[in-house]
Design a protein that fits this description.
Number of helices of chain A: 17
CATH superfamily of the largest domain in chain A: Bira Bifunctional Protein, Domain 2
Structural class of chain A: alpha+beta
Helix content of chain A: 40-55%
Strand content of chain A: 15-25%
CATH topology of the largest domain in chain A: BirA Bifunctional Protein, domain 2
Largest interface: A-B, 98 and 98 residues
Radius of gyration of chain A: 28 Å
Number of strands of chain A: 17
Mean pLDDT of chain A: 95
Low-confidence stretches of chain A: none
Oligomer: homodimer
């Protein structure tokens, strides 16, 4: 294989330090926020038995997007984690001693066998927060408040909207007005609205599902309802309020919106359906005002999913933050930069080979003071050490030569200001560096 | 599937919040330490093309332990990451713009198709630190200093030893004394010493490899050399110092030990070989004084591995910390506990349904003050809210009823001390809580 330049598999990525430093910072902000709300961390394996994932996500996922494979030894079928929600449901069924309601977050990669393209990868992180064990609107409201705060800690201030809908609204209206008993295929067509436009959805409804023109037009009219939550709920109740599903949904949504702190950022939008089969109640999606890149978070209520595993139903609701798209958008908008190429704050520059051991001691002392400190391990010339430190934009250089060794001092150089301070006792270095970092 | 209780796949684990809180704390300590040494984070995909991993680890890994599978659509062969070292080598070959020496850490899961047993899983985390681009003993010494500090930040103080050897010592001595030209099969037999004992190794050498009795006895004599690094190096030089490999190795090791800060924790031990094929120079392993559970960290120099991918050789050295065994040992020794069942610090208890909205506002204020705060989302009775908070050992309860709502106050209860403080203005709660947490 000599000479070949291997790459990560197609659709997979390496993360270099500049990207990892940014990613870790953003994951850490989200993690702190989740913990502020009292959500606890869990983790599940990256593989599940195939039958755990089968039948949960819908046709496309099942037949095309889930990475499944056979254990070559046992012949047992496995699948790579496709999202963090079905594993959570399985987790709840496996750990029946958890205290309900169970509030958990999970920041972890998932895998989808997509055709790779710009911004779309086969392995990507999701950041999920869910509440298991409450059927009340309070739980859905907390999830909306959490996702609004999440976008804010990620730096998007008010530059986004939370679109909300409820599966029961569409189910009820479709049933009442159009006699549609299984709305899932219709949802799947509507879900493509952003991608294929109104005309595209119309074609899907008529040609693929076989609905007639009147029904199709009616559906398009219904899903065009959107706007301020209260006003839109008034309209819906007036028109379709006799239907049991609609009645339940409007009551649930009114109580939910009542507990949302930032209602001005929310929108009731009947064209929102979400692509996954398992949702049963309120659903939500976050879209940025710019750039136009589709949703950056999505979620909703799935009251039946855990029951599939457990045999008894446990209601649940949650949200998944699409951190990869948010990172792409944040870089495009200039909210995030990839400026930091290293975590290193101080490079100890070994000026004379004879002062090497003293230089190591100084590096060790600087580390004890809390500074991220590198030292040469390659016997490089002083000039080369400096050049490499510059390429990584390390902010402080600490020179150690014979002079410093004899006087038990260090010479500091701050690269941004160009300031150079000689003859510093190592103990005094802490304050001097801290003030300038 | 109704009624079935699914489990994670055999050999895989879920992590509940108590375990995750501990794991995150330990990962974070290691991460801070790696950064203190100026090591930068990277990440690589969990899958690599099979040919990237093939031929790197040795027979057993290749034929049995690597999880490999075919993409059902393309037929392309993939493998789950088996360690973090080969992916690093591939990373270096894929990213030729990295500044050398490249110091990186990587905390991530790997997968091995082992037969599951107590303490041995098919998915487990490794915490690796490596230096790419230096062939000097300084790099190996830094890795030893780093691993000693790692065991300390993990709470093991001086309760461990770092066993060191150098592949070139054994290669040189075997070649010189016994005419063995390919020592890899002999290494594999010696590597089983801890598991099968001296008699077991003897049988392996004679029966499986076909060595005669004299050679076998000689090998056992050589690998029984161990002790203080300087004294042991003196003995080796006296006996085998004419061999070129031995000469190189002893010089390298002397310079390396000279830069190790805690030499009293190190040991030169000729029976250490490490199981992987790719090592070329100094190798190391950390063993705890107790419990007796095999090595908890291991690593060494692998100067040829990157060359396989890149076509030109780049020296490298590093260590992998076996955090799973360390966690098991730490729990057994009582260094770690699983006491914390939640990150939540304050549970807001809703006493009257009518004060619900005020309670939500207080929860939000407490979060702004930096406290991890939960609130009921299930309309539970006061008593049930308290019972659940107690089951999770949440340290602070904040009661909100009509009285508190009207006076814009909160009543605080500290579960450990039993202290109850009424009539606190929300703004004043911060200091009161902080002092008692």
């Amino acid at each position: 294989m000599t000479g070949k330049r291997p790459r990560p598999p197609r659709g997979f990525r390496d993360f270099t330090p500049d990207l990892m430093i940014l990613r870790k910072e953003l994951f850490s902000r989200l993690e702190k926020l989740f913990q502020r709300y009292g959500y606890d961390p869990i983790d599940t394996p990256i593989v599940e038995y195939w039958e755990t994932l089968a039948g949960k996500y819908g046709e496309e996922a099942e037949n095309k997007l889930i990475w499944r494979f056979k254990d070559p030894w046992s012949g047992r079928e496995y699948a790579l984690r496709y999202d963090l929600t079905v594993p959570l449901a399985r987790f709840i069924a496996s750990h029946q001693d958890v205290v309900l309601p169970f509030k958990r977050y999970h920041i972890a990669p998932v895998w989808r066998h997509e055709e790779p393209q710009k911004g779309r990868y086969r392995e990507f992180y999701q950041c999920d927060a869910d509440i298991v064990g409450s059927s009340y609107p309070e739980a859905d409201a907390e999830i909306v408040n959490l996702v609004v705060d999440a976008l804010r800690v990620l730096g998007f201030n008010d530059g986004f909207k939370v679109r909300v809908n409820d599966r029961r609204l569409l189910t009820g209206i479709f049933e009442e007005e159009l006699g549609i008993e299984n709305p899932l295929p219709v949802y799947r067509a509507i879900d493509k609205l952003d991608k294929i436009g109104v005309e595209g959805v119309k074609r899907e409804l008529m040609e693929r599902i076989g609905l007639n023109g009147t029904t199709t037009e009616k559906i398009l009219e219904i899903i065009s309802l959107r706007g301020d939550p209260d006003e839109t709920l008034d309209k819906i109740e007036e028109k379709y309020g006799n239907n049991k599903n609609v009645k339940e949904a409007t009551r649930h949504l009114r109580e939910m919106f009542d507990l949302i702190f930032e209602r001005k950022l929310t929108l009731l939008d009947l064209s929102l359906v979400r692509g996954l089969d398992y949702y049963t109640g309120p659903i939500l999606e976050v879209v940025l005002d710019k750039p136009k890149i589709g949703s950056v978070a999505g979620g909703g209520r799935y009251d039946n999913l855990i029951g599939i595993f457990l045999g008894k139903e446990i209601p649940a609701t949650g949200v998944s933050i699409g951190i990869e798209r948010i990172i792409d958008a944040g870089i495009e908008l200039g909210i995030y930069t990839l400026r930091r190429k290293t975590v290193t704050q101080i490079q100890v520059i070994v000026v004379d080979r004879e002062s090497y051991k003293y230089a190591w001691e100084v590096a060790s002392r600087l580390r004890s003071m809390g500074f991220n400190t590198r030292i040469d391990v390659s016997r490089l010339k002083e000039q080369t050490q400096r050049k490499k430190a510059r390429r990584l934009s390390i902010p402080v250089l600490a020179f150690i030569g014979l002079k410093e060794m004899e006087s038990k001092t260090v010479t500091l150089y701050f690269t941004e200001s160009g300031e150079r301070i000689e003859n510093i006792k190592v103990d005094e270095a802490k304050d001097i560096i801290q003030k300038r970092l």
